[in-house]
What does this fold into?
Amino acid sequence: MAEQKKFVPFVSPETNMAEFTVRALIIGLVLAVVLGAANAYLGLKAGMTIAATYPAAVIGMALIKLMKGTILEENFTRTVGSIGESIAAGAIFTLPAFFIAGIWNPFFTPGNYMISAAIMVAGGILGIMFVALLRRVMVEDVELPFPESVAAAEIHKAGRHGGGGSKFLFSAMGIGALIQSLGQFKLFATSWDKLIPLGKGSLLLNLLMLVLLIWELDILLVHV
It folds into this structure.
């Protein structure tokens, strides 16, 4: 059995480096609100959310680097900024059930809002407690070479190395923002929908109907 590789932190524990700062906290809280709101909208519209860790890492790194901050401040900002997505996911996947089931009727009342806020606070505290227990698995376990936290840490490392890594990250982010902005201003179409008429006696239509018929017969035979 191969000897387990010892975990070596990127920043030595003996290093005296700023981490918990007011600017990092404020930037993280703003990112938590923005990314949490974006994920709440996306989750209610599409039924799924995206990980806020990576955009929080990139945006936080860009802002902290402009302020000549440390990599630990970047990591702290990313951690705070990604919390909003988790809280939003916990809300949009549970609270609508109260409305659908008719438990909160009417739904939009100050009392229900306060109850929702209390549920989110309790869920956030519970999540922090679980993170403390799962830190070793999420960060230090070498048998999981690419967990989310390790991937986010590589973003911060790439930014500190300078050169190609950080330039690639910020260039990709800028190009993506530019393309999205041009699409929102209707300078080009972001999607293409076109109805293709097949015709009454089209060979393609007949072949499609034949394939669907064979598929249905196959399903019936399997169930019999």
The chain has two domains: 22-161, 194-224.
